[in-house]
Amino acid sequence: MNAGSVIEYIERKSLPLRQPNDLQAIVDAVGDAQIVLLGEASHGTAEFYTQRAEISKKLIEQKGFRFIGVEGDWPSCYEINRFVKRYPGAAQSPEEALQDFNRWPTWMWANREIMPLIQWIRDYNDRADNKRKVGFYGIDVYSLWESLDAIMRYAKETGSEEIERMARAALECFDPHGREGQAYGLAAALYGEGCKDEVVQLLTEMQQRRQRQPNDDEAALSAEINSLVSVNAERYYRSMITHDGESWNVRDRHMVEALTRVQDFYGPDAKAIVWEHNTHIGDARATDMAAEGMVNVGQLLREQHGRENVFAVGFGTHRGTVIAGQEWGAPAERMVVPPGRPNSWEDMLHEAGGGENRILLIDRQAPELQQRIRHRAIGVVYHPRFEAGNYVPSIMGERYDAFIHIDESSALEPLEVAAVYS
After folding, report:
1. What is the reported pLDDT for 30?
2. Domain boundary at 254, 286, 314, which?
3. I need a labelling partner for 269 at 20 to 30 A (CA). Which of 105, 185, 237, 401 fits?
4. How far apart are CA 374 and CA 14, in angstroms?
5. Which pLDDT does position 388 carry in this prediction?
6. What is the pLDDT of residue 421?
7. DSSP state of 327
8. Sorting pLDDT into bands at 50, 70 and 90, what band is 420?
C-alpha cells in the first residue's frame, strides 16, 4: 500500500468539519438517494451520535426523510417512537422514553447524547401534519422475549384471542430457557428442542391479518415486526451455536427486512435514515467478510435498491475515549482509545488533516482508495491493549460514499438504567 498517495489524496479532497453547517456537504452529496446509512466506529463515542443527529435533522428538514431505523431492539425503540408522536400513554420526556433500554449494552441508546435528537423529532412532529411525522425504530433481532411480551400486550388490547393464544404458546415453549438466548440456542441446535414452529405460525397469522385488514394502524405494524423478530431471533440464537458466520447473516438480513417493512408502511417513496456500526453499513464486499461468506446491511441494501439510491457514511476517530465493557455483560467503563496504528485509515486521516476533524466525499474511481487499508472497528467489548485485532482491511472507495473523521473523540454519557444481561 502507498500510504503517501492516500494521505495526499485526503489532503486534496477532504473538507474541514468545524461546525454543524459543514455537514451540509454530506446532505448535498446524498442527492436523491432514498436510504442514508450513518455508521460509527464504536457504540460508545459521543461525537458519532451528535454528528449523526445533525445530519439526520438536515435530511429530515431538507429532503423529507421519514424515519430513523437504528441498531436497537424494536420494543424499546418503539417507546421512543410513541414519545415523538405523542401517542396516548407515552413517556413524558426523552429520559423517561429511554428507561426501557435495559438490555446490555444499555449505553447504546440510554445515553445523554441521543436525548436532544429525540426531543427535536417530537418538536418537529408537533409542527408537521400526520402524513409527514417522523418515526424512530429499532431494527435489530435480539429482543426475542420482549417482542413476544409486546405481542401478548397487543393481543389483549385488541381482543385478538387467537394471537394471544399463539403468543402464549410461543412464550411457554421458550420459557424453560430462562430468557437466555444462548441457553435456547444450545437446546435447539444440539438437542432439537426448538420453538421454530410456534413463532413461524405466529408471524404467518400476523401477516395474514394485516393482508385481510389493511390499514395505517402503526400498532398492527409493530405487532407484525415483533413477530418477525421472534422468527429471526429464534434462527439467530440457534445458528450462533453451530455457525457464527450464519448468525451474522441472519441478523443483517433481518435488519434489512424490518427496514423494508417500515418503508412499505410509510409508502413506496419513503426515505429512511439508518444508524448502525460501520461493520453493518459499510459494504461487506469491500472487506474480508466477503471471503467468509458474510453479508451486511450496506451490501444487501445496495443490491436491493442500487448503489445510487443508498448513501453510506462511515465514521472514525484517531484517538480519544470510549464507553465499552471488558467482557459481555461487564459494567460500562470509560476507556482510552489509543492513536490509530501507523498506516491505518485513521492514522492517514490524522496526518492529512493536521489534527482537524474532516469530511471526505469518496470518489470510488480514485485509485488511491482502491487499496486495502486497515480500518479500526471498536465493539461493545473492547481491550485497547489488543488494538491490532480491531482493524479490518477495507477498500474505502467501495465500502463507503463518504467518511467523517473525528480526530480526538470523547466517550458518551450513559444514563442510569437497570441492566438485563440476556
Report:
1. 98
2. 254
3. 401
4. 19
5. 86
6. 46
7. S
8. low
Q: Are 106 and 181 in the same domain?
A: no
Instruction: List pLDDT tens digits, range 201-241.
Output: 999 999 888 877 666 689 999 999 999 999 999 999 999 88
- 275 shares a domain with 133: yes
Phi, psi of 69 (to 5 degrees): -110, 130
Q: Per-residue pLDDT for 412 more than 50?
A: yes
Residue 200 has pLDDT above 80, yes or no: yes
Is 284 inside any structural domain?
A: yes
Strand partners, 35: 272, 310
Helix (H) or strand (E) holding 272: strand 272-275
CA pair distance 397, 183, nearest whole angstrom: 41
**What mean pLDDT do residues 97-114 have?**
96
Task: Determine which helix (DSSP H) or strand (DSSP E) holds 393, and give its type and residue range.
Answer: strand 391-395
- CA torsion, ordered 97, 103, 104, 108, to nearest 10 deg: -30
Smallest CA-to-CA distance from 229 within 343, 120, 142 is with: 142
Return the C-alpha cell found at 103. 438490555
Q: Name the residue range of residue 397's domain.
A: 3-138+271-409
How far is it, in rounded angstroms, from Cα 368 to Cα 52? 27
Can you give the pLDDT at residue 209?
82
Report CA 407 to chain centroid distance, whole Å: 23
d(CA 343, CA 413): 31
Closest CA to 278 of 156, 406, 142: 406
Using CA atoms, how far residue 40 sits from 1, 61, 122, in Å, is 25, 23, 24
Determine if the pTM surpasses 0.90: yes
Residue 418's pLDDT band, with cuts at 50, 70 and 90, is low
Interatomic CA distance for residues 295 and 391, integer angstroms: 18
Per the structure, the count of domains in the chain is 2
- For 84-118, the DSSP string reads HTT-TT--SSHHHHGGG--BSSGGGTSBTTTHHHH
* Distance, first Cα to last Cα, the chain: 43
d(CA 251, CA 76): 18
| Contact between residue 69 and residue 259 where contact means Cβ atoms under 8 Å apart | yes
pLDDT surpasses 70 at 169: yes
Question: Helical H runs in 43-92?
Answer: 46-63, 74-84
